Amino acid sequence: MKKVNVDFFIPRHIKELGVYVPGRLIEDVLEELGLKSAVKLASNENSLGPSPLAIDAMSLALGGLGRYGDADSRRLREAISKLADHPPEGILAGNGSSEFILVMSHALLSPGATALMSKPSFTLYAKNSQASGAKVVESPLDAGYGHDLEAIASAIDPTVRLIFLDNPLNPTGAYLRPEAIYKFLEKLPPTTLLVLDEAYIDFCRAPRPDYKALLATNQVIIYRTFSKIFGLAGLRVGYALMAPELAEALNKVRQPFNLNSLTQVAVLTALKDEEHLKKTLSMTWSALDQFKERLPEFGLTVYPTQANFIMARLPQGIAADAFTQALMKEGVIIRSLTSFGLPNHVRINAGTQEELSALFAAMSKVCSGR
Ligand SMILES: Cc1ncc(COP(=O)(O)O)c(C=O)c1O
Question: 315-319 contacts: CB < 8 A, separation 24 or more?
Fold first, then answer.
């Protein structure tokens, strides 16, 4: 039989897409380096894991896996509705909050439209926008490694449909104060929507924006995730708040049954476990305070953060890839920011006291060997 050239079927804008670079899996690192154990502080996860109550609830629900679950995550959306005081019709549940980026790009962008974002920021904004055939415009960060709202505002033209802003910003941890967001919103033409990615907002110690006032404009979509503070990254779940008309449009594009039934049960239970959230916040804030104090002892310069991670610049002449590789050999995985265009910077997320001790011990070893 004849063989066709599959290259023909792949449009140029898809060929030009880069692949998403995730943090390394602990299992892979152990296998590659022949280590018995490793500490991972590279993917902004919650080292405490999920609420034990959520694990129990999932165990009880396992017997029901033979049936399809709720295609619309109705109970979950109702629970979020009560929590966020926003109508369920304006709430979407997603297979990780990353699904919203994909679904918004699909439903709201098309060739001829533009998506605007900072560079670096969360990499899926550019990838998913480009995959939908839209033009991607990336605006450099300001001198403090935060979103440069003036530069972004000046890049707006009538084709800009979506502006993605992660607040706090991944990978730098920088934070936009509420007033800055309100001022920025005033500059937006009615042809542009602002997407506020609040994956890390739960860790903020600074004042948070009045999200209800933002939503009332109909011009803002806000989403959050259960991957971080709720420790459910592996389960994949997030929620988005927006005008009901927008939710209706996005809802047509997402997969039915995008949240499996175990996920729905887990989240409904996790929402009630305030104790677990308190423990997570206390672990996170303590770790961040220790990073600020201890990392400069190793010659690293730390940057302000409102997320559950910190960005640090390595001493002059040390490449992030080499540094993270050396730490990995000591059994500690942190993130090099080379793939974000910051080859001298690393990102380290909060962890338990034991994990922090392992990090500082590994850093002592690597830094003394320089
Ligand atoms: C800024 C930001 N947004 C969204 C996500 C996606 O999170 P998830 O898909 O796990 O909800 C991440 C993940 O690290 C992130 O850093």
Answer: 318/344, 318/370, 319/343, 319/344
